[in-house]
Design brief:
magnesium, Terpene_synth_N, Terpenoid_cyclase/PrenylTrfase, Terpene_synthase-like
């Protein structure tokens, strides 16, 4: 459909120049002579009825169909890796609970969010943010601009 549309667009073809008048020198000032060279361009319309034939890529069919993907197994779903992941989550929960400075707490939360791991620690993050914003001591915000922007 698109190839027939492109072929139906009129195409212009350049046929040549024609000089309508002979060159006539004109005196513009005492020392120089100007020569006017008028030029006319002609073009003709060409209509192309040819259809554009696109070359086939002859691509091989992929083996990655749904059945093949479902049959793949991962060694990282074994019990050893599941236990290791839970152990690391507990260590991070301890880190969140043991950090005492509000700026350090916010930076740790920011790091977890940037790593894409914050969804594992949603309740701990909510509690920490509540504690930071409910504290009456806001001197840590006034110390530097980084602390103020991190608290936003």
């Amino acid at each position: 459909m698109a190839s027939s549309f492109i072929a139906a667009i009129p195409v212009s073809s350049f046929t040549g120049f024609q000089n309508p008048r002979p060159l006539v020198p004109q005196r513009a000032s005492n020392r120089s002579i100007r020569v006017h060279k008028p030029v006319q361009c002609f073009s003709t319309k060409l209509e192309s009825d040819k259809t554009v034939v696109r070359r086939s890529g002859n691509y091989q069919l992929t083996i990655w169909d749904d059945d093949y993907l479902q049959s793949l197994s991962s060694v990282y779903t074994e019990e050893v890796y599941t236990k290791r992941a839970e152990l690391l989550k507990e260590k991070v929960r301890d880190m969140i609970g043991n950090v005492s400075e509000p700026l350090d707490q916010l930076e740790l939360i920011d790091t977890l969010q940037r790593l894409g791991l914050a969804y594992h620690f949603e309740t701990e993050i909510k509690k920490t943010l509540q504690n930071v914003y409910n504290s009456s001591d806001d001197r840590w915000k006034n110390e530097n601009l980084h602390a103020t922007t991190t608290s936003l």
